[in-house]
Amino acid sequence: MQNYKVAIVGAGPAGYFAAQALQNLQTDDLQFSIDMIERLPTPWGLVRSGVAPDHPKIKTVAKVFEKIATAGNFRLFGNVELGTDVSIEQLNEMYDAVVIATGSAVGKKLGIPGEDLPGSISAAHFVPWYNAHPDFADFKIDLNCTTAVVIGAGNVAMDVARMLALEPSELDPTDTADHAIAALKESSIREVVISARRGPEHAAFTSPELRELPKLEHTNVLMAKSDIEAAISRVGDEIEKDTKSNLDAMLLISEKEATNHDRTMKFQFLATPVEFKGAGKVEEVIFQKTGSDETFSIKCGLVITAIGYEAASIPGIPYERGKVVNNEGRVSENLYVVGWAKRGPSGVIGTNKSDAADVMKLLVEDLKGVKNGGDIADILPASKVISQSHWEAINAAEVAAGEPLGKPRVKAVTREELLSLGGI
Ligand code: NAP
């Protein structure tokens, strides 16, 4: 019987699904000892710090992650950063294979004038802020304006716009960070414009997300019927299933009887942002009507760009165009990559399951003799590491704090709080 040691770096969906795939590939003769290394004191990646808190069903996949973590032959090393606490060279010495599953955490930039003005922020900061990510505990966002513009036509733009345009008391029964609920309750924002540079037929929203918008109880959702009809006529009869489903959902939104709530979420299409302007902070966004020279502007005090992500680079790993350089998940000898760090920021959480399973098959094909490297537990101070049982203590404390408030959990925000809940 061969027992191979595999390190998975990153405790998000791609990392857990890689661990699950290895567990499923085990036989009487082939066993794996899996160590998951995560820079935060908490695992679950985007399921904890990305998924919108008003979408609790999506987060139920965390139960699958916990099953994987407690299936045996699995250790969590939370609060341990690759490149700082341990190097890739050390992992290569200690493990038979190393799997990078660190996602894409850096927001892409538009590269237009005024993008760095105060009041212009990336979804890559706003989303972890409202989800209580420790790195954004001190992030400041000024919501003292009536109009916000969200650039991008994907599900992240939609999450961001919904979070800004919801009646904030709707977030009370969710696990939104307390600091974000408090700030959103003080927010003066009443109009959120989601802006797409192309037409509705090219929007990257998915139809379940579009179909839930008309159900918002305290927000007017506006789409111009003429925009959707023009898109339908542009695409004609030979239309892809997903595009048709999206356009059907958008048509329903555009035909919905007008409501008269305080808060409005409005979609605009075929508008390319060319400049953010303002004296010392964002005061307006200048758009060009896509495909023409005509420009127009929207006065606003906040712009959030949600135009995709890139992977942050880790020393010792090759990157190109925001991804780890790889061939079907193979990076170099004994080094693999899965998830967004491998293929870029696309797909839903479940997409990572088949993606990771494919890469783990290659990993198993490539395995040679078992190495006799050391144990990572011997090089990390025990007082630092959040193990699975420490994490279970954090998890239980957060869930218990939520119970009397009718919330799934109250998230601890700072690293200090998290470590102390974990008992270290
Ligand atoms: P995305 O789906 O790729 O959407 C990015 C959007 O940004 C596109 O509309 C794109 O327009 C636009 N864009 C890119 N560069 C731009 C530029 N320079 N100027 C203006 N617009 C620009 O990415 P995402 O929203 O970050 O989502 C990432 C992945 O996570 C997606 O697969 C998404 O479905 C998934 N996700 C799923 C959920 C859910 O299931 N509820 C929630 C959140 C995220 P073009 O098409 O014109 O390039």
Report on this model:
The protein has 424 residues and is an alpha/beta fold. Helices cover 32% and strands 20% of the residues. The strands form 5 sheets. Strands 3-2-1-4-19-18 form a 6-stranded mixed β-sheet, with helices on both faces. Strands 6-14-7-8-10-9 form a 6-stranded parallel β-sheet. A 3-stranded antiparallel β-sheet has the order 11-12-13, with no helix packed on it. The radius of gyration is 23 Å and the shape is globular. The two termini are 36 Å apart. FAD binds at residues 14, 38, 46, 82, 340, 347-349. Keywords: FAD, Flavoprotein, NADP, Oxidoreductase.
Shape: globular
| The number of domains | 2
Mean pLDDT across the residues is 97
Helix share bin: 25-40%
Structural class: alpha/beta
Ligand names:
NADP nicotinamide-adenine-dinucleotide phosphate
Q: Describe the biggest sheet? A: 6 strands, mixed
| CATH-level-4 superfamily name of the largest domain | FAD/NAD(P)-binding domain
Residue runs with pLDDT of under 50 for 5 or more positions: none
Strand order across the biggest sheet?
3-2-1-4-19-18
Q: Could you name the CATH topology of the largest domain? A: FAD/NAD(P)-binding domain
Output the number of helix runs.
14
Quaternary state reads: single chain
Please give a quick description of this structure:
This protein is α/β, with parallel strands linked by helices and about 425 residues long. It contains 14 helices and 19 strands.
Entry keywords:
single chain; about 425 residues; alpha/beta; Rossmann fold; FAD/NAD(P)-binding domain; 2 domains; six-stranded mixed sheet; six-stranded parallel sheet; 14 helices; 19 strands; globular; binds NADP nicotinamide-adenine-dinucleotide phosphate; EC 1.18.1.2; flavoprotein; ferredoxin--NADP(+) reductase; oxidoreductase; Ferredox_Rdtase
